[in-house]
Write a structure and sequence with these properties.
The structure holds two protein chains of two kinds. Chain A is an all-alpha fold. Chain A is built from 14 helices and four strands. Chain A is 68% helix and 3% strand. In chain A, the strands form two sheets. Chain A has a two-stranded antiparallel sheet. Helix content of chain B is 9%, strand content 35%. Chain B is mainly beta. The chains are: A mainly alpha, B mainly beta.
């Protein structure tokens, strides 16, 4: 999931807005909301494998951030980002074992420091960790799927909380484009597969999908900067997801973002360097530290 | 595909297909199983139902239950017989009479309990036996998607249908029923757990909106029934009156005195939702699933079996669920009572993972029993949902629909067609040996359990009075398997056959606590457990080598305590409740 509030793109020179977005409230809003979602989900639906596993994911994530931050940056990084990654892993990963939670968090945080291009990390950390786990260790892990029930209540809660965050960060258009694209492509899929239309739309009506929409594809650190570009990328994620779904991939949305996200960033960097309008990626330090 | 490095740490190495080495099995595990159904004269193959054509595209999934097995000595000759259900319209159920020579003979037709799946009356889903009129002969309650049936056992010479006289309703879509004397009046009562709603005729659907409205929080299933035995051949339905009003999708239920109160509590495992634990105060039931810990995380409950796995005089409860690599890992539950103080009442911890019995595929029936007579209870689990095309899986479509909104999942017409694809098919079974030190080890392949049919029901019985537990497995659209057990004679045993006098004559609910070699193990006579199954009413205790038996304490449902001394191993004790 994203560290949206801490890393949102802010037009240079707009001091008031910068201050507003990075105010103490905004800075801790995503961790707070994610925590609320987790607690609400677990109290009402028992979504967690266990508190211990989620705690392990969070502790591993924070520990990895501290260690890697010291090694690469020679200072103590802010931990809110790692906390969100850990809690995301705790919510989205399902396994009867403990080790996948630690490994997934470790992979997620490490990817942020190691898999970089021109000083920028390319993958949303939790998307990277979870995609890697379901791809490499399918015998031992799955993702959150049906554990949040099938009623509107849970979905509305996430829409409400997610919208508050995303609207404030002016990224709601990403969600909107993705949802519209998904539904439009569902028509295409049903035409191709012959399956009932509602079965193709069904995944996006589940609460767990809303976490993906609101907190993963909107990650400012791993999405392109322009609004038009963001819309194109959101559509591209939905389009690649469709192709993966036609191949009956259970984890199509995660893999789609895993594939499209870095490619979009690399294209953006290439375009930027061609036009020499923007610094390629900023300093290593600037790219890593979440305000 | 999982890289080998990850596979090593997953703890789930695929067990290799091995040819049964009986000497090694005896040396390493103390027993082996030989599938002998054909040699025993049993060539039964279960047939599934064909429901309303509107469900044709997902028929293999919705018509995926009905294979069941129950053990009963219907003619009181001292040898366990086997009753199995069939589920195709017009198909016949079989009652295999034990011929005392290693073979069985189907006598269902001549005794009047074969032709029970006639079109228009629904089809069989299971059977439980209990002597509801205390005449000494076990009567038959037939669990159906359709018209439920009660057959009175006419002294082992035939059966008389008494469904209407008993006051049963015209239609229930159930998969589970349990005989137990909930109010301790000496008469067996009957719990029946509905699955589909009772107003749904699966052969003539008014609407395709008959699927669960959630994969884990469904509350639109069949109602529950508790038929109170009035003692005159009639039953009064009292479920609401005593506090049982759930409409979850029950798949398995069993009763046991979990708190030592003298009253049997009722544990219900629900598909598409949480389990329910109804604590019995002798008059009313109090649902305490969430409070006790067993009814919090919703899964796909398909089995309830009780077993004193630690030899502490306490029951653990095994509930089976679904686990599919890389898609859905619910994990099975092994609920073990906590040592609770401070008046909180009973609470349970799930120790399935710690003890190694969590992952069993698409798990169905399971039973506890001491398979190698070493003095600890082992666990036999069967599994596998729909085995069709080996190379094509329905899982992607299943996950696509199951995570969606209730209005989508609840309507069968929205479900993608199965098109001959498998859904958790061809799974390897699990025979978990209890090492007595807190771990179960899967030895299925090594002891001869290599079948990969779509297993449903498991029942345990000493079929040939040899002092070992044999295993009978009913498979959906597959053969009935009879696994004959071989255990070295130096592993000793003792068995008890109980007959109530003040208590119900079947002895259902009676508990035997056996004390030997400084340890104790409790077992109870059950009126139905596992999934669509019932074990033999005789209680079998493995004792290990050179046992010293101190005593056996019997607690009857009437409350009477009977203590037996001077017991010797390798004997079946027939005990009548002291007057």
């Amino acid at each position: 999931m994203s560290q949206a509030a801490m890393t949102t793109s802010v037009p240079p020179g707009n001091g008031a807005q910068w201050k507003r977005v990075l105010s103490l409230d905004n800075r801790f809003m995503p961790p707070l909301f994610i925590t609320l979602i987790l607690l609400a989900g677990n109290v009402s639906f028992g979504i967690l494998e266990s508190y211990q596993k989620t705690l392990l994911a969070i502790v591993t994530s924070i520990a990895a951030e501290l260690v890697l931050g010291r090694i690469f940056l020679h200072k103590w990084p802010h931990l809110a980002s790692a906390y969100i990654t850990g809690i995301s892993v705790g919510i989205l990963l399902r396994s009867p074992f403990f080790w996948p939670y630690a490994l997934c968090s470790l992979l997620a945080i490490t990817s942020k420091y190691v898999l970089r291009f021109k000083g920028k990390h390319l993958w949303n950390p939790s998307n990277f960790g979870i995609s890697a786990m379901v791809f490499l260790a399918a015998e031992s892990v799955a993702t959150l799927s049906i554990q949040w029930g099938n009623n509107l209540g849970a979905m509305l809660v996430i829409w409400l909380l997610g919208s508050v965050i995303i609207w404030r960060l002016r990224r709601f258009h990403i969600c909107a484009v993705y949802v519209i694209s998904f539904v439009a492509l569902a028509f295409l899929r049903t035409w191709i597969t012959g399956d009932p239309l509602l079965s193709e739309i069904s995944p996006i009506t589940g609460p767990e999908y809303q976490l993906f929409i609101f907190f993963m594809i909107t990650d400012p650190k791993t999405t392109v900067r322009s609004m038009k570009g963001q819309c194109i990328v959101a559509f591209a994620v939905a389009a690649v997801e469709m192709l993966l779904r036609l191949d009956q991939s259970v984890y199509a949305p995660f893999y789609a973002l895993f594939i499209v996200g870095p490619i979009a960033l690399l294209i953006e960097m290439w375009l930027n360097s061609r036009h020499s309008t923007v610094n390629a990626a900023g300093s290593f330090d600037k790219g890593l530290v979440h305000p | 595909m999982t890289p080998i490095v990850v596979r090593r740490f997953s703890g789930r190495e695929a067990s290799a297909q091995t040819k049964l080495d009986t000497k090694a099995a005896l040396a390493n595990h103390g027993f082996y199983l030989t599938e002998v159904s054909h040699a025993a004269g049993i060539d039964f193959v279960h047939q599934g139902p064909t429901l309303d054509p509107k469900l044709a595209s997902i028929m293999p999934e919705v018509a995926s239950m009905g294979a069941s097995v129950s053990i009963v000595d219907f003619d009181r000759d001292g040898w366990p017989d086997i009753y199995v259900t069939n589920s195709a319209e017009g198909s016949k159920n079989h009652l295999y009479r034990n011929m005392h020579d290693g073979t069985f003979k189907d006598v269902a037709e001549e005794l009047g309990i074969a032709d029970v799946n006639q079109p228009g009356t629904g089809v069989s889903m299971g059977a439980v036996w209990g002597d509801y009129d205390n005449d000494g002969y076990e009567d038959l309650y037939l669990i159906k998607w359709g018209r439920p049936e009660l057959f009175h056992n006419d002294h082992g010479h035939g059966f008389t249908r008494v469904s209407e006289k008993a006051g049963l309703p015209p239609w229930i879509n159930a998969n589970t029923a349990v005989w137990f004397d909930y109010d301790g009046d000496g008469l067996l009562d009957l719990f029946v757990g509905g699955y589909y709603p009772e107003d749904v005729d699966l052969w003539h659907l008014k609407s395709t909106k008959m699927m669960p409205n959630s994969f884990e929080y469904a509350d639109n299933g069949g109602r529950k029934y508790l038929f109170h035995n009035l003692g005159n051949g009639k039953f009064e339905e009292v479920s609401a009156k005593v506090g049982i009003t759930s409409r979850r999708w029950a798949l398995a239920a069993a009763a046991a005195d979990l708190r030592g109160t003298g009253h049997q509590d009722l544990f219900v495992a629900n598909d598409y939702g949480v389990s329910e634990l109804y604590l019995n105060d002798g008059k009313r039931f109090h649902e305490a699933g969430e409070r006790t810990g067993v009814g919090f995380a919703p899964k796909s409950g398909m089995n309830v079996a009780f077993g004193d796995i630690f030899n502490k005089g306490q029951y653990a409860v095994y509930v089976s669920n679904i686990s599919e690599d890389g898609v859905l890992i619910q994990g099975n539950n092994l609920w073990v009572p906590k040592d609770v103080t401070g008046g909180k009442g009973i609470q349970f911890d799930n120790l399935a993972r710690d003890m190694g019995v969590e992952l069993g595929g698409w798990s169905f029936g399971a039973q506890f029993g001491d398979l190698n007579n070493d003095g600890t209870l082992d666990l036999y689990l069967t599994n596998g949902y729909v085995s069709l095309d080996r190379k094509k899986s329905y899982w992607y479509d299943f996950t696509k629909i199951s995570g969606g909104n209730s209005t989508i999942i609840g309507d069968a017409k929205n479900w993608p067609a199965m098109d001959g694809r498998s859904l958790s098919g061809y799974q390897q079974k699990h025979v978990w040996l209890n090492d007595g030190a807190g771990k179960f080890v899967d030895v299925a392949q090594a002891v001869g359990v290599t079948d990969t049919y779509d297993g449903r029901a498991v029942a345990l019985a000493d079929l040939w009075n040899r002092g070992v537990l044999d295993v009978v497995v009913a498979n959906q659209r597959g053969p009935l398997l009879v696994y004959k057990n071989t255990v070295p004679p130096d592993e000793r045993w003792i068995e008890f056959q109980l007959e109530g006098t003040k208590s119900n004559r079947s002895g259902i609910g009676a508990e035997v606590t056996l004390f030997w070699n400084g340890q104790e193990q409790i077992q109870q006579v059950s009126g139905g457990s596992g999934f669509s199954a019932q074990n033999d009413r005789r209680l079998h205790f493995g004792l290990g080598k050179a046992p010293r038996i101190d005593k056996a304490v019997i607690r009857w449902p009437s409350g009477k305590i009977q203590t037996l001394h001077d017991l010797t191993p390798d004997k079946l004790y027939k005990i009548k409740e002291a007057e």
